[in-house]
Predict the structure.
Amino acid sequence: MRKKWVVVLVIALVAGIFLWMTDALSRDVCFAEETRDFSEMVDGRALYATTPFSQGIYSALTEIHEKYPNETELRTIGFSVDGTEILALRIGVGKDKALILGGMHGRETITTILLLDQIQQLLLAYCSSDPYQYGGYQTRKILDDVSLWFVPLLNPDGAEISMNAGKTLKNQELLERVTKGEKNLASWKANLNGVDLNRNFTKHRVSVVDSPGAAFYPGEYPFSQPETKAIRDFTLEQDIQGVLNVHAAGEIIYWDPPYENIARYLSGITGYSLVKPSENTRMSTYDTWYWQTTGRPVITLEIGKGSLTGPIPFAQYGDIWRANWTTSLAFARQIQKAQPIALLLEGEEFPLIHPPVREHSGQVLVPLREVGEGLGAQILWNQREKTASVQLEGSPLYVSEKEEMLLKQGKAYVSLRQLAQALGYQVEWDNYTKSANLVRRDED
Ligand SMILES: [Zn+2]
């Protein structure tokens, strides 16, 4: 009898040590959670009033990185015309990377505040033991797949011009020359050369403004400005899988044609209206360049109300935050879902003309004929009943009904798991490489 109790005690002890260790390990990922104080976080209102603004942002990002040295990476991706560092901060270890871009236009500094706020809140959620903490999103799971690179202030000089008439800039001579005749510097969008960065990404077809100034001057040629060059190089070097380009204002969302679904998703979250892409919105912008170069999703989010004559009053920030606090993570979630899936057969690449697709539910669908025939089966299509049967020899193993099939550009897609099972294969899923390996089931 006593022996039995000893065994129970030993088991309890081992289990206790195990639980303590796994807890300690998971804690180790996020450094010293319990010492964090929410009140220590950067104060958006104070930051909005900081002079120089870019210095305030620099300090805030540095401070966040020092507080979360293991969970973030901080980089200088380039320098502005005036020589100010342009910073990028990464959260998450995901192999795929999404870029959240803000502060491209001088007067749109509220976007920088929003992104700094998102960074801090995301880090708290990332380090929390509750996986669903952030607006119902599994923060860690998403960021383990898709890292988020934030560039909160691409145009620090433009921000200084809008926020304090450029008094804090080093090159006062250039400032004077470029802003000459400009009455309302608070409405400044361009950089210190008077180039509108969001018109400097591709060759412009129609030029609305032909000399440097507050807005819309595209510059002499694409990427003539250090800020546009910096973000182009960073985007390409990091092989960015999708971009959320945050601007102000108007409470609208722009997208490029293949990605209306992502735009709709973000519209559902923010309540912002969708604006169909037009020649005007696509002209020489970052979005146009990125989409033409990579074919990947890029969405422009215009936060805040009205049309601007200066920075958005901080009084609007509450509404902006409520509409946008989850947008970056929601965007990362969309990129996560869009990750390509590789199909393997006994560990070797299974070449497909039409790649597998993942449904919203997470189910993987494959082209029926290509995969079925690739596994040696015959696919018989019943045109009248719109059904397909799969057979190896003799009688059909699996009949795919109309409702089980997804028709994509005239091709029938079916559940990989069901098809594989019918043909005697098992599907092994590798979450890191996003690959599905078909392994022959042992006959028993
Ligand atoms: Zn803008």
